[in-house]
Every structure is written in C-alpha cells, then in structure tokens.
Amino acid sequence: MEIHGAGVAGMGLAVLLSSRGIPVKIIDRSTGPQHRVCGEFMRGLNSQLIDQYELSSILHEAPQHRKVAWFFEDKSLLQFDLPEAVYSVGRPSLERYLKKRCEESGVEFVFNERGIPKNEGTVIATGRRRTFDSPWFGFKIHVRNIALRSDLEMHLSPCGYVGLSTIEKGWVNVSGIFKSGSIETEGLKKGNLPIHRMQALLTRMGFARLSDRLEEAVAEPESLKSTSGIVFGFQKSKSIELAIGDAFAFIPPFSGSGMAMALQGAQIAARVIERYSRGEEAWEKVCREVRRELKNRFSKKIFFAQAFHYLMSSSQFQPSLVKIARSGLLPIKPILWGIS
Ligand SMILES: Cc1cc2nc3c(=O)[nH]c(=O)nc-3n(C[C@H](O)[C@H](O)[C@H](O)COP(=O)(O)OP(=O)(O)OC[C@H]3O[C@@H](n4cnc5c(N)ncnc54)[C@H](O)[C@@H]3O)c2cc1C
Predict the structure, then answer these.
(1) pLDDT averaged over the chain?
(2) What are the structural domain ranges in the chain?
(3) What is the pLDDT of residues 20-66, one digit of tens each?
(4) H or E segment to which residue 18 belongs
(5) Residue 53's closest CA among 86, 94, 6?
(6) What pLDDT is attached to residue 221?
C-alpha cells in the first residue's frame, strides 16, 4: 500500500496495516515530523485508541486537563469541568512517536516528495484541501512564562477564537483560527520575532489583552506556524479515492477532535484495506465502503460542530450567543461538550 501524507492519519494507518503484515510506503512532501497549526488538545482519545496505537508510552509525559474557561473579549463567559480528562500532546512528539513505531514495523518513508495518485492502492492522507476563497486562517506558537487561568482557555472575538493549554515539558500552546479579508500589519512582518508576530496578530484579531499577557513570554522560535485557505467539513474528493483524516473531513478546531478522528478513521480504513490486500475486495468497493463508514461515524459530529462554529463566528449570531451563555438560559456547556 502507498500512503500519501505522514501526518497523524497517514502514520496511524501505516502502523495498523504493517501490524497486519501489509507492506506500506509513505510519501510526504515535507521533511518529516514538525510543528503544525494545531491546538494539540486531544478530545475523544479513548482507551481503545490508546491501546491499539500503544500511545500510553507517549501520554505519560502529557498533561491531562479537566477544566475549561471561555472568555469573550477577555471577559469570563463560561467555566466548566470536563466529564473526562483530556490529554495535550505536542505534534512533533506525537508524530516522532508514530514514525518510530512505523519504522520498527518496516514502513518505508520517502520525504520531500509529492505523492502521485495511482489508479488503486493509494490512500490520501494529505490533510485539508486548501482553497483561495476561504477567509479562514490559523496560527500557533509554543510559549513559556505565561500563567493560565484554567487548564484550557478558549477566547472568542468577532474575528475568531484562540485556545491556550499546557502541553508536555511546560510549554503552552497558543493557537487560533481567524477570519479576515486582510491581515497586513507591520508587526506580522517575517523579520520580527515570532512572539511579536503572534502578539501583533492577536491584537489585530481582537485579543489585545491576551496579546499583553504574552509580553513576558518566551517562545520556541520554530513553533510559530500558520496555515490559510481553511475549509470546514467534508473535503472535495474524486469518486474512486480513499481519503482519511483531514483529507476526508475537517472538523472545526474548537472541538479538539481532529487528531482522534484521524486515528479512528485510520482504524476503519485498515479493516477494509486488509480485505483488499488479501485479494477479497476490489479497490473501487474498498473506497466506497471506507467513505460510507467514515460518513456514518462522523457526519453528525461534523454537522453540529460546523453549526456551532458558524453561530460562534457569525457577526449576526455571536452577540446573541454571548448573551445566552452569560444568562445561563441555554445549556451551552453540554452542547459544547456533547457535540465535539
Ligand atoms: C487552528 C487549528 C487548531 C486545531 N486544534 C486541534 C486540537 O486542539 N485538537 C485536535 O485533535 N485537532 C486540532 N486540529 C486539527 C488537527 O490538526 C487535524 O485534524 C490533524 O492534523 C489531521 O491530521 P492529518 O494526518 O489528516 O493531516 P495533517 O496533519 O495535515 O498531515 C498531512 C500530511 O500530508 C503531507 N502532504 C500534503 N500534501 C501532500 C502531497 N501532495 N503528497 C505527499 N504528502 C503531502 C503534509 O506534509 C503532512 O505531513 C486543529 C486544526 C487547526 C487548523
């Protein structure tokens, strides 16, 4: 099997296929495990996923979070306890771990190359498909020397939302997703220090107080990453194509579910691909079946997360949502937790 993309989805699938004795080659256009725009907060990581991917050896270093606080323009909006503890793991650590597991089971890696889809036997795990007409873009950085007000802080403004949580070794992940026609601003220029660029962006996107809190912070320089052209929900794909992870569907990031969904999707795909590798199923049927199973598994979750993301970020509905959250009229907490 050939897998295009060495992210969580691609390497997760490679681990499962190679453990079934199926030879796997992964092609990735980048240089390998690295920082990515991601909140690194892992919702939905149940014991079944932890066991199957043998993640406990990496999770022992990861902080577990139980409390969430939401803020609107730096004023407290909601605080609640999570029904179960959630891990935060830095992407470079997680991907290095998955790569090591792949290598131990004989997976071949080719980096710095784009995958060329073949007629059959190729899995697309190349992440979100970008589009130039989406206003949504994301940023992330790792910092130290900032005191958090909750295990997980979520900040909302008319331009988007930002999350903060502690990952391993005491680093704090600051990442956000924003919409804007233009973000031209002096402070964002490439020559400026990463922390100053993040501060400039936060100020520009309506998070001035959060930006002030980064004044004394120290950043991990190579951790500043950005991404643009973000499209939510099911991604465009060809009819005979087997796509998993974000290449199949991208759930709005406030849910913190993207990585667990990528691993769950890989489990579904591995089961069906095993039949193809034994010659029991045609590739076209495999593609259709995986797509159907992924849709059955994730459609509801993605639909509600997209609807909530829309309400939260729409200039028309955001003010009412903020009022409702403050008044306690609607059970926002269970909605937020339940759908994501
Ligand atoms: C702002 C933001 C915050 C987020 N926060 C969270 C969070 O807190 N918790 C969470 O669980 N999820 C979060 N996510 C989502 C999470 O990052 C994704 O769901 C997850 O990365 C999906 O993994 P993937 O393997 O499908 O794709 P990716 O991680 O994007 O990996 C795709 C890989 O494919 C490679 N590639 C691309 N094109 C090609 C090509 N043509 N040929 C070969 N290789 C190629 C890339 O180099 C990359 O290595 C967030 C996302 C954003 C944007």
Answers:
(1) 91
(2) 2-130+230-339
(3) 999 999 999 999 999 999 999 999 999 999 999 999 999 998 999 99
(4) helix 8-19
(5) 94
(6) 84
Q: How confident is the model at residue 78 (pLDDT cuts 50, 70, 90)?
A: confident
CATH of 2-130+230-339, one of 3.50.50.60, 3.30.365.10, 3.30.70.100, 3.40.50.620: 3.50.50.60
Within the chain, residue ranges assigned H as helices are 8-19, 47-52, 56-59, 91-104, 194-204, 208-213, 258-277, 283-313, 318-327, 332-339
Choose the most confident range, by mean pLDDT, from 177-191, 254-268, 319-333. 254-268
The dihedral of CA 284, 263, 38, 94: what is its sign? negative
Question: How long, in residues, is the chain?
Answer: 340
Count of Cβ atoms closer than 10 Å to residue 301 Cβ: 18
Residue ranges around ligand 1 (CB below 6 Å): 4-10, 27-30, 36-42, 114-115, 125-127, 138, 175, 177, 227, 230, 245-247, 253, 256-260, 262
Q: What are phi and psi of 42, to 5 degrees?
A: -105, 85
